[in-house]
Design a protein that fits this description.
Largest sheet: 2 strands, antiparallel
Helix content: 55-70%
Order of helices and strands: HHEEHHH
Length: 188
Amino acid sequence: MSRFEWMELDNVSREIAHAQSRLDAARASKNHGLTRLLEREIAERAERRARILADITKGLAVAKPDLSSASAPKLTLEPAQGTPQSSKPETITANAPPSPELMPKPDPTEGVAAVWDELKRADIERFKRVLESRRSEMLARHAEELKALDADQNEIDVVACAIEAFVQKFKIGGGGEVVQFASERQAG
């Protein structure tokens, strides 16, 4: 079990959620081709998520106590009724791994809902820390943008003052007349 598997599981779950929202939009717009495509995509990703979960659960082994074979109890397994019987019952010790035929087949979707429906205090605290870091990053970007806008406003104010000084120096203003070009005077 590695951190990569958990990250991959999280990414696949997000992809499924995103595809589900796209599927809802496609159904609302009655786009049947896109609907079928997204349904296939969701099914493929759900299978991938099940494989990832199976890999993760294989890595989660419970530590077994070290029992010597002399003190380990022996179990005798009788085949169930209606199954072909061998000539003798199978005997295994408690610390020996059972044969693959006797192992129950894991349902990859069993327990998935329980894992994702549980929310612990540590999860909430981690989420609060993530939100706080995002908020501080956003506030820092906002402050930088405000500084840039203030600098731009200062430049505009300097140019406006220069234009006002130019207008006053050359007495250009409200009483000025519009001068026409020679081509405009001949046409009019």
